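Appendix B.2, paired examples.
Example (i):
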Amino acid sequence: MKTLDDKEYDYVYDRLSNILDGIKGDKSYRDLSKEIGVSSFSLHGWITRERLPSIANLNNLAQYMGISLYELLTLLFDPKESEQTPETLYSSIKGLSFEDKLKLLKYISDSIREDYMTNVQR
């Protein structure tokens, strides 16, 4: 079984940190840990890079995000997996405030309008 080197650990922790930041929003870490179904101690360990989540806790995180455990593992461990899917994007916006969701909705509608106008002009 292959173990991770320091660079790979940093990569995984960075990806995990980005995911947690995306779903945390304005919640406290205690509230987030309850929603995910993990202990505050475990979540603190992930944030401070003291420990990686167990498979059981990764499964809880994946369920909270609305994706499969495989998808979460791919996001965390596969450097080629840099593209976001609609499901992972959705899970990232769950923690946003209502105002931020409205801003995001405007960005999305502007992007769709631009794509539409580009395609109509062809």
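Example (ii):
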Amino acid sequence: MAAEGAILLVFVLLALAAPLVLYVLVRDERKRDAETVADREAAERAARRDTRER
């Protein structure tokens, strides 16, 4: 009976921790990407360069 309780406890802890870990990872990724976001003009120039190369 103790083994089932331990397995249940581990499952509940993982179920609670997984969304929090994912939230932190996504928040960090968004913060990191915010530093490299191009403005509209730079994005349009890059898109035009891509079409010329093809």
